[in-house]
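User: Hey, quick favor. My workstation is busy. Could you predict this chain's structure for me?
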Amino acid sequence: MGPAAAIPFTDQLGNWLLSIFSIEVWGVLASWFSGFATLAVVFLALGLQIWYERTRRPKLRLSYRKSDDDDNRYVALNGNRQPLSEVEEQAVEELWLRMNIVNDSRATARDVELRFIYSMKEGNKIKEDRPSWWFKVANLNTFSVPIPPKFKQPFDIAYVKNCDGVDDDLHFFLAIVPPDMKEWTVEKQRIESQKSNKLEVGVQYRLVFAVVSSNANATYYELKIKASDRVKHDIARNRLQGPDALRRRLEVIGPVVVDAP
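Assistant: No problem, here it is.
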């Protein structure tokens, strides 16, 4: 046969099938590669987002200074529950214990709360029956607040109350509030009427609570507080004691960071 002899049909069919198969294989490989590349881009974007959020997560800490008058705020009230003037009758005095949540980061901490976890009396390993509610934001009628960068926000923890002309010693309360928090004058009456908020004078309490935010890690703290008993040189218990005497009687240890319960 001459050089121009026709290629056998079977060889032509084989070459055609091989070309089709090669096209299909490369098409599948291209699709797989495109899919893997898309997944890699998605995972890389998610990883970068997680990394960015972690580096931008607010860093919150709790602070308290015994020597700071703002952290141990003395308030004198009259019968109408207004600040006293020099001519008004002195009827009630209170000393409020406050903790400050400090935002040391450059990002705003959202929905920051100081969540009460539990309390124990000194020498007792049984948790007291108190609701796991919230400590009140100082000067605001709420328990949740955003905290801007490089800002500190005080929260009310507890307070002692003394009434002029009443033959009774200090009253001691936790400032924990429920989710349906009322207008402050109503809420304060509820705080003082509920057994779960009352503390005994002369007993040390161990409080465990958490700093919580929707965009920051929760941190747990322990605080020991006590309203000490009267001593001989104290003013009569049916008279106002004054800020120095109340600050002396309110004993505070901590706060310190602890593991989650």
